[in-house]
Design a protein that fits this description.
It is built from 10 helices and no strands. The chain has 208 residues and is mainly alpha-helical. α5 (83-100) runs parallel beside α9. The longest helix is centred in the N-terminal third of the chain and has 24 residues, at 54-77.
């Protein structure tokens, strides 16, 4: 008897996954398309069959991951929970994304979101969209009386995301511990620090 056929290999996915490893190991600008092909175990020309350039590969990796982040923030915001819990859920999603796929998150941070003169500028609309969604969470919490109203929600959003990105950078460059307890502690500290500055006191006045 002939056994069941193996599922077809997704060459596009194979190339993207190989590119993550190469970009993380060598850096985007230092690597060549042939390096990606070698890592994927495919012919050089096959990479060009799916992608016009290594720039397109990086673009697709970023858009793929960033769209998941935007979707996650929107889903969190739709839940009937306090603003602090929403920000905690967003922080958890981002930190868990790093824990599950550190090489991909390294590539996105180093090669895209911090590359202000190249890919970062190209993807400013998507990056701004994440800030705007987080600012919306803050603004709604201000309107409900949970957060103080004298803080610009756009600035609060940048503080919040910037703190998390700095943590990810610390893990990428091995500057801070990365045991399971450290991830949990970092998440708690970011949310408590940012929300502690946004919370109103029981009397309804901004916390001092």
């Amino acid at each position: 008897m002939v056994g069941p056929k193996a599922p077809p290999v997704d060459r596009r996915r194979q190339i993207l996954d190989a590119a993550i490893r190469v970009f993380a190991r060598q850096g985007f600008h230092a690597c060549r398309v042939s390096d990606i092909a070698n890592e994927a175990g495919v012919a050089y020309g096959l990479v060009y069959h799916y992608f016009k350039s290594k720039d397109q590969v990086l673009n697709e990796l970023f858009v793929e991951r960033w769209s998941l982040l935007l979707q996650a923030i929107e889903e969190v915001d739709a839940r009937p929970i306090p603003g602090r819990e929403k920000l905690d859920a967003v922080a958890g999603f981002i930190i868990d994304s790093y824990r599950h796929d550190p090489e991909l998150m390294q590539v996105i941070i180093v090669e895209v979101t911090r590359a202000a003169n190249s890919f970062g500028r190209t993807h400013l609309p998507e990056i701004r969209q994440a800030y705007e969604l987080i600012a919306k969470i803050v603004r709604e919490a201000q309107e409900s009386g949970e957060f103080r109203a004298d803080v610009d929600p756009d600035f609060a959003s940048m503080w919040f995301y910037g703190a998390i990105e700095q943590l990810l950078s610390g893990w990428v460059f091995e500057l801070i511990p990365d045991a399971d307890a450290d991830f949990t502690r970092a998440r708690t500290m970011v949310v408590d620090t940012i929300c502690g500055g946004l919370d109103r006191d029981p009397a309804g006045e901004p916390a001092q």
